[in-house]
Amino acid sequence: xxxxxxxxxxxAMSGSISYQQALDAYxxxxxxxxxxxxxxxxxxxxxFHPDHRQETITTLQVGPNKGDRCHKQVAKVLQADSRIxxxxxxxxxxxxxxxxxIGGGGAGCAAALMAAxxxxxxxxxxxxxxxxxxxxxxxxxxxxxxxxGDTPQSHYNDTYKAGHEKGVKDLIKQxxxxxxxxIRWLIQQGMQFDLNExxxxxxxxxxxxxxxxxxxxxxxxxxxxxxxxREAVGNSSVxxxxxxxxxxxxxxxxxxxxxxxxxxxxDCSYVQIKARTVIIATGGIGxxxxxxxxxxxxxxxxxDGLVLAYRLGARLRDLDSFQYHPTGVAYPQHLSGTxxxxxxxxxxxxxxxxxxxxxxxxxxxxxxxxxxIIRECKExxxxxxxxxxxxxxxxxxxxxxxxxxxxxxxxxxxxxPKLVQLGLKSDIDITKIPMLVxxxxxxxxxxxxxxxxGLSDIPGLYCVGEVSGGIHGRNRLMGNALLDIICFGRRAxxxxxxxxxxxxxxxxxxxHISNLRRELMQNExxxxxxxxxxxPEYARYDTIINCEKxxxxxxxxxxxx
Amino acid sequence: MSHQPTKGHQIINxxxxxxxSQGTDINLWFDGNGGTGxxxxxxxxxxxIATIQEAGLRGLGGGGFPTYKKWQFVADQxxxxxxxxxxxxxxxxxxxxxxAYLLSHSPHQVIEGALIAALASQINKIVFYINPEQIxxxxxxxxxxxxxxxxxxxxxxxxxxxxSLSIRVMESSGHYIGGxxxxxxxxxEGNFPFPRGKPPFPAVSGVYGCPTLINNMxxxxxxxxxxxxGSEWFKALGLGDSTGTKIYCLxxxxxxxxxxxxxxxxxxxxxxxxxxxxxxxxKELKAVFTGGVSSSILTPKDIDVPLDxxxxxxxxxxxxxxxxxxxxxxxxxxxxVTEYVNFYAxxxxxxxxxxxxxxFYISQLLNKIDTGQASSADLESLKNLCKFLPGSGRCHLxxxxxxxxxxxLHHFLDEYKSSLNG
Lengths: 561, 422
What we know:
The complex is a heterodimer. In chain A, 29% of the residues lie in helices and 19% in strands. Chain A contains 16 helices and 23 strands. Chain A has helices at 19-27, 41-48, 72-78, 106-117, 152-162, 169-189, 221-234, 304-311, 343-346, 366-378, 401-407, 411-415, 417-425, 480-498, 511-522, 544-549; strands at 17-18, 57-59, 69-71, 81-82, 93-102, 122-125, 142-143, 203-205, 212-215, 239-241, 246-251, 257-264, 269-280, 316-317, 322-331, 351-352, 383-386, 392-399, 435-444, 447-449, 461-463, 468-469, 530-531. In chain A, strands 5, 6, 10, 11, 12, 13 and 21 form a 7-stranded mixed beta sheet that branches. In chain A, helix 4 (106-117) runs parallel beside helix 14 (480-498). The termini of chain A are close together. In chain A, 57% of the residues are buried. Chain B is an alpha/beta fold. Chain B has 3 domains: 19-235, NADH-ubiquinone oxidoreductase 51kDa subunit (Rossmann fold), CATH 3.40.50; 238-328, Ubiquitin-like (UB roll) (Roll), CATH 3.10.20.600; 333-418, de novo design (two linked rop proteins). Chain A binds chain B through residues 85-87, 89-94, 506-507, 509, 514, 517-518, 521-522, 527, and chain B through 94, 252-253, 255-257, 280-281, 330-332, 334-335, 339, 342-343, 346, 367, 370-373, 415, 418-419, 421.
């Protein structure tokens, strides 16, 4: 992806140690002493976690969450003008369906499959291609309480606690109770998991959990999941529309969601999809690079679903809470932000600072580990990566894969082939040289407020996957995202068809956009910002608007990333 | 663009939406504007119709028919065995929400008006006929009616009528056509709201063959105030030759949409640019759809039109219910008209074949044009339909659909042509 002008993480500070110097020191050491691992977590988060930086927070001035705290960059897209006017719809064809699913990741596919199996006519519209999503990025695995001695109650307790007790209890209950059945369904679809010699599912422990509960397939569980979901969708009656991002929802005369307007990237035209029910599964917003962090997110994670739902009046929550995955690649620079699975730490890898010390319990929840890494770097114990321009690059800490390999020979190749491959791409043999890691913007904890079936405040509008909020509170456990997307995706697909509006919509329109514009004008907000973004700022994609700007409405060359 | 207000611009919400007319508690109503009008009516029932005539009150549901005439027709009929008053709250036109506002915020003035009408025309059965989707209207009017039944005025009215008085609150079927006078009568009789042919007119033979008066909620709401403060006062409220006030429902591409009670005859310009806060995003005005059947489109050249029945009619449109749906540049007219006609096609009761098939075909053609799949032959078909369909339905629904298409073809033919595909 050449468009990845990822902003720097932490630039070198005086007192930090150079890559070569730190690497030499590391290689000369065999025993890594732990500093005091009993840290005051609240103080650590307050001082070092990016969510706690007050200068990045603002208060929303328009919409159903008016007055709520929100990250400034998120507020900018939520409080922007629509990309379209009513006049843009002149001549736009209308297509009718029962259920429109927006988003071609795991949640969207699961929802579409269940709805189609129930007998619904389903259109699945995706911004790029089916499977272009964060689901394929998920490496570590999926949680479900399937081991002897483990229970949904323990899973519930761990999830609630890791979310700082801010998760919605009913949603967590649904998530953990559906866990085992979700795994069974995935296996029925054809998904593979790593098994022991008896054919039983292998499990491992995620950070912040009390039991071995993560099932996985090597270190590309999400990719395997997406493989089977894609095949299943391909073999179903779901009508897949690639390269068709949704630019606005449609509402009916009563304010119910009644479909969406898609912008076809292939022929530069708008299409109105009139649907009884809409399921948004567009993922998160990592690609706006909050706090200028690199991100592990897929290119399409621009918060489109948040914007669309918010404009129609859906309430959102926890808009100031994001997850920074502790182990994103910090060096080499061109891979910055790329995720290294938590599974490596689950398997026993240490995190080591430039002084050769362990500084945190690696299996603490992600926000604690991330904050601890940032603390090490800020306090001069980080390693400075080399930059391609000869200057100092990003800081980070070591992920001790050589130590893990020494304790478990052959484990890396067997369990983490993707990581080994990633190292080779950078001329680093991870069995001998540690990777330099730094937190990467990974997950949007908050999102659209939903009920146990994924239904938002707006009748006819469901939101599932990362676009929804409340399940993970203010911090997510490893493996709960893959469970969330399948569990709530399936529930929404079933429920949406059962509870679809039986009478057709009398009238479909984008009248709600006028309300947005009124609010923006009355609050003297700038009207020049447009959203949904669809693509990161640094992408050059031939959307209709970009075509018009260049005065070449006939040309549309597709992706130019 | 600067907009100079007319003399009436500051006089807003002075009668029906005045704070003293609001509230769902009958005691608050009597403490405010309530009771006096009814007392005056009780003291001289024979003078009520004359007072209404002097005040120049007209039907505010869209027709603009002089109210006193309707009342007089019914008053002139023999009681056989009952006389009915249907208070019409079926309100379902696009952009109209005034009755819902009145009933949910100030039901007592409507009920007091209905009681005065009963006194004037010797009516013994009152029916509040309300759209079932207006839950809050239904709840509030039900509670308010119960409060009236236990107050002293009720017995005084029965004594004056010489028979018992019944008040019933009923849900309409929810069909748009149920708001048409004769359809409402069918509905009250428990039938599907198929409009009837006229004559006989409802005043002669309405519910179960009895003389029946049908008034809109806003019309009735004005009555107690006229009886309270006199016809001269009411006449002076209006601008120009108009009398009284009108509740305008402003929606569409304006900064501050909402309900505004303004002097009858307030110019469209004042409504949009002063009360409505101007156009959204300061875009240019393109058109205004007025609410109710028989309404054609107003265009920017009509911006100065005083919003009263006669002035709007002179511009070839109709004031209708007082709904003004404002459309700015940047909005496709074909789409808006298509939405309207879809609504009519959806609302046709299907009784008259020309309406059933006519609205359907017009709707199909418009949808085809709007979605860029129509040819010039389709546009010609549309024009032809507009020529021969009017007048062939029992009620005005078909005419309403045609008028709006015809009017948009007249003003915005180029937009239709640009949407054609070959």
